[in-house]
Amino acid sequence: DKLVNEMLESERAHVQALDIVVHGYLAPLKEAAIIPLEDLNKIFSNLELIRNWNFAFLSTLQAHLECGVTF
Question: How far is CA 33 from CA 18, 21, 36, 66, in A?
């Protein structure tokens, strides 16, 4: 039970950090268009995809735990 809770908290922190980068840096840079999109893609690569995958994983993990499903 402790291991699962630690995993959940770690994943929450990871998603939060990814959110900060995506919404605090990548999105404003895209909107401002001060760096060419090609360069932004090189710098941030597939970070949005990684963030979305981790968010989905976190949501699924939380849903399973709320339903009482254990691993």
Answer: 21, 17, 6, 42
Which single residue is written with the structure tokens 């939380």?
Answer: 62
Entry pTM: 0.82
The DSSP call for residue 50 is H
71/57 Cα distance (integer angstroms): 14
Query: What angle, rounded to 10 degrees, do the helices at 47-66 and 2-21 form?
Result: 150
- Alpha-carbon distance of 13 to 61, in angstroms, equals 14
Q: Which residues contact 28 (CB under 8 A, 6 or more apart)?
A: none
Give residue-wise pLDDT tens across range 54-69: 999 999 989 988 887 6
Residue 41 CB contacts under 8 Å (≥ 6 apart), including other chains: none
